[in-house]
Structure formats: structure tokens, C-alpha cells
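User: I'm preparing a small set of examples for a lab meeting where we compare how different chains pack in three dimensions. I only have the primary sequence for this one, and I'd like the structure in C-alpha cell form so I can line it up with the others. Please keep the answer compact; I'll paste it straight into my notes.
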Amino acid sequence: MVQKTLVGPFKQILTMNDLPSKGPIKDDQLEIIEGGGILIEDEIIAAIYNKEQFEKEKKHYRSKSGDNSYYKISKDAVLIPGFIDSHTHMVYAGSRAKDYARRNAGESYLDIAKSGGGILSTVKYTREASFKQLKQLLFERGLTHIKCGITTTEVKSGYGLDLENELKTLRVIKNLKESRSLIPELIPTCLSAHVKPDEFKTHEEYLDYIIKEILPIIKEEKLSDRVDIFIEEGAFNPEISLKFLEAAKEMGFKITVHADQFSTGGSEVAAKVGAISADHLEASGETEFSLLKDGNVIATVLPGASMGLGMHYAPARKILDAGLCLVIATDWNPGTAPMGDLLIQAAVLGANQKLSIAETLSAITNRAAMALELNDRGIIKPQYLADFLVFPCSEYEDIFYNQGVLRPKQIWMKGTRII
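Assistant: Understood. Below is the C-alpha cell output for the 419-residue chain.
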């Protein structure tokens, strides 16, 4: 039997429906339903009611659990879609607190990596960790994410860098996802091409190893259908990255790219290979924006990395004004973005870059869903997943005005209240 639940009334419902997929968004373009509610059938939003319709509909529902139940919202509240974090590195062991201290003392990210810190130090700890330990660590980070209102999150491998440990981390993601724990839905991405591990002499040799040894098993076990690569000095140059991505695409993988964090070149590769998104973009300018626009590539910015590194933010305002689809993600990782709080990062970036509330919220809901090619969430709309947040305020502007301090009082995921 279908479980039906009526939820409301809400002071405001921000549906995020019928918004442009690219370019600027004004706040007056937001669809706001005042005094209404929503009807859930199992995991799906079945209907959205305005105030008059809601008052009429609730007479048919009981204010208790069971079939045809009514979940009353007793105080002023704003309903918005659950947040979507489209770029994280949440499967890892160990800490890089010493790297953070060294950067604050004046050393550069690249110099720290060359002297034994950086990504390869996390690889060491992650290889040493057991499947059970990594699963517990990811679960704990997932709990942190869900409490921040994130109902879907992408998770990359990339701290194993050999067949055994890349498979281990991706199997952790799959195992935890299938356990249906009360954490965000996990979307796995293979980032074996994070950096070259020491046991390989050349970058080309390592990328060939990924193509021939790692990706076939990932495909066979259905561990991920997405491949990423870090295009940057100290990682992989644009020329060999393009060849690698073309080979991965030929195998049937979708493509996303770490691009233009410290230097340019990654955006051009992303456009040439037809990537879904190019992520970072701190070094990008008008040339890169044009390439991404022509290639229909989503521009994902990662303010958490800028905070962790003490560097400038990606030019989000210019990205929007260039007509691109802007997405904001946390880049949660142990080295440069250990905070992982999407709402705080989006709110701070929005203030810095003069983004409208609509642009900021869209970048972590409906447009973020596009970056993961998920067409069943990110919008309060019939037949979409009932993933939504209830904030204790009467006007949606308060959510970002408080810059992340105002937390959702209720979090619903697939039709079930989990917080």
C-alpha cells in the first residue's frame, strides 16, 4: 500500500522550478508558494498545494503516523530542496593538519607536496586503513553532511592510486550506499588519476595502468560510471590528460575534470572531451569561460579549497555573466578543504561574488543536480524525490543572511524525516 503523508503548512515553499539552467538568475524569478504544503507518496513528491488547496486537503489526513498521515508544521518555516554536493573527496584516512600549518607559515601547496606532504601523504594513510575503518570514516562524514542539509553527495576515490586500494575505496562507497544508512545518497567517481604514485616512473605509464587495469574492473563491478583527472602542475598535464579522458570515454565513462585551480589548461581539455563539468576554475578567465560555454560544460566552483588555501575564490560572478551554469560544491578533502559545510561556503562565496540568493541556492540544488546528471531531485516538484529541508524562518533570505548558522530544523530524504 502506498504511504501518503501531507506536510505543512509552510510560510514559504521555494520550488526552484522553471529556472534557467545557465547564466544569471534574479530573486524575483523564484517561484514561492505561501501558506501551502506538499503531499508525499512513499519516496516521491505527489503534489504541491497552495494555501487554499492545502487547507482543503488536510481534512482528509490524520495528525499521526500511518496511512494518509498529516505532518503538521507548527511554526513559521521555509521549505527548500535538499542540498546537493557535487564534488567531494570524503573517503580517506589520516590528517593533513601539519600541511595546513605549513601553508599558514608561508609554504606553498606545491612545495609541501614536493617535500613529502600533500596528496601522497594521505595515500599512505588510506592504503594502510582497512575496508571497515574507511567505511566507518565515510559514514561519520556522511552524518556530518546530512546534518548540514546535504541529501546527495558525490564521493571520489583517488587516495588509493593502485588497483587494490582504488577498488577498496570505491567498494566502500558502494557498500555504504547499498546499506541505506541515514546519510546522503552517495554518487561515486573514479579519481585514480589524482596524482602519480611513486611506484610509477612516468605519468603516461600510470595513466595507461589505470585504463588497462583499474577501469575495466570498476566497469565490471559497476563501482562508478564517472572518471575524473587532476590537470595541474604536479599532477597531469593537459596533453596526456586529454588522451586519458578520451580513452575513458571510449570505455563508456562519463567525464568530469579538476581544472584551472592554479594554472589554466584544464578547461580546454574539459571542453574538447565533452566533460559534464570542470571543477575549481580559480585561475580561469574569459578565454576559459568561452571554451566551457561552447563545450556546454558546467562550471563548478569550490570555495572550501580557497578558504583552506587562503587564496582568491573562483570568479563566480563572471562565470554566470558569461552565460555558464554555475554549481557550488565543497571539495571536502583532508588537504585543502577539510570543513565540508556547503551552506557556509555557498553563503560566504555569494557575499564575496555578489550572487543573488536565487543564484546561490540554485548552485547547490537544481543546478548541482545537473552536474551529477540527476533529473529526479534538486526541485520541489511532483514526481521528484521528496528530499527537502525545513528551515525555522519566515523568509527564505534568512537562510543565507545568517551565513550557515541557521540550520534546518527538519531534514527529509526520500519521503522520510531523518532529522
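A couple of notes for your slides: The chain has two domains: 4-81+378-417, 83-371. Residues 4-81+378-417 form a domain with the Urease, subunit C; domain 1 fold (CATH 2.30.40.10).

User: Perfect, thanks.
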